[in-house]
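Could you please consider the sequence and fold appended to this message?
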Amino acid sequence: MDAPPFPAAAIASACAAVKAYMRMEGSADDTAVTTAVRTALALGEAFTGSAWIARPWQAWLGRSADWQRLPVAPVTAISAVETVDGAGTGMPLPVHAYTLDLDARGEGWVRLAPATAMRVRVTFAAGTAAGWEDLPPPLAQGVVLLAAHLLEARGDAAVPPAAVVAFWRPWRRLQLMAGVRRQCWSS
């Protein structure tokens, strides 16, 4: 699944933070700064295993009566569950054809009824923060440091600053048996 683009306002605010950190003035390097910021944000999300900036996502689910985990967390809302025909036209599933759940970790789960169509598209919102300004400071500082490193080491095989990982590691989502949901019964 490809991640949707980051909101333009978040990119602009992050670029301003990088330019302030590097004491850059003018717009001569704006394209390079924007590219570095987008790369740093994408790498940060991939490293931590979570969406940082809230935006709409889509996931395709296979035909299964088991609980299926949405690929990105933290999920804040599931807005549509629909079948999609060969032409790409979506038609909402009736409410009795699926079950939704958002767990305490912010993971979204969908369980389809056994007779559900083959191709199901789920549209949902996921992200830790509404925008760049709401991003936790360690995540934002890691983006700024990594983007600055990418700009300063253009074309070089330099190692990124260790501080980037130090900022991001506490936010990393690791789990055993990812995507598996079990029922626990007590007697």
In short: The beta strands are 55-61, 67-69, 75-84, 90-92, 98-102, 108-112, 120-126.
